[in-house]
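Re: that chain you flagged

S.,

Sorry for the slow reply, it's been a week of failed gels. I finally had a moment to sit down with the sequence you sent. For the record, here it is as I used it:
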Amino acid sequence: MKEIDVEKVLNEFRQWVEAQKPVLNSPTTDEFLLRFLRVTNFELPEAKEWLVKFWKYRTENTNWFTNRDLIENPLMRQIAESGYCLQLPKRTKDDHLIFIMRIGHYNASCCTLDDACRYAFAVVDILNAQPEAQLNGFVILLDMSEVGQQHVGQFTNDFARRYINCWETMYPVHLHQVHFYNYPSLFDPVYGMFRTLYYRDVGEKIIFHSNVNEQCSGKNSLHNYIEPELLPKEYQGQLGCLDDINHQFIQWTRERNSTMLELEKYGVDLTRVSQLLDQIQQE
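Prediction finished late last night. Pasting the structure tokens below so you have them in one place:
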């Protein structure tokens, strides 16, 4: 296998990004650019395309990527304290990070799905800065336990399309498994929308767990995939309760709040971004 000259590729990437101003306005620090190089195995054309799409979807969906201050914004603090989404403190035996998202855990009577997404994307911006995330990727646990009709009613075709586009083509991380925990049948129409839009090959990575008893003893037990010592007690694990873990996670994210907010200063000229992507594909 050919050895990669990381410094050389990194400098070429940086020079290219700086040369794209004013169409593309992006950070050029080693830490930021390495996110895109690592996930593409240092293939420069692919890293360029991923970076441009990262800014394209953020610029197109400003309602998800602005006004997200985790310290000063009362709504962001409220969603954070609900434990809507968080990273667990331990990794799997394969060094994958574990990310829990409790889909129905936000208060749908005073908080919109866009608000919840705004918080989730703020958190993911912080998580994505971790070298471990870029190198080893995530296992996702989607807890559907509290999903109700109010939550389902907020999912529209337009929301699903924009959400999938952001996750699929924006964040430079690998998803190794996606676990649906306590999946309710009322979510079937929403899941159907997502499956028609999702183009990564994730079929074998999605695992459904229908109820607690099945998870404790059946063939689809969550513990067959994620060891109990890595999970909170809410999932029959040994880590302690989610509220305590989330309290520590909130503190951790708030310490990194300024680096997340810094990303709101950047973007791409949407009138010229297609031309830039065409140029990359012709290289």
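What I noticed first: The beta strands are 24-25, 85-87, 97-102, 138-143, 175-181, 206-209, 267-268.

Talk soon,
D.
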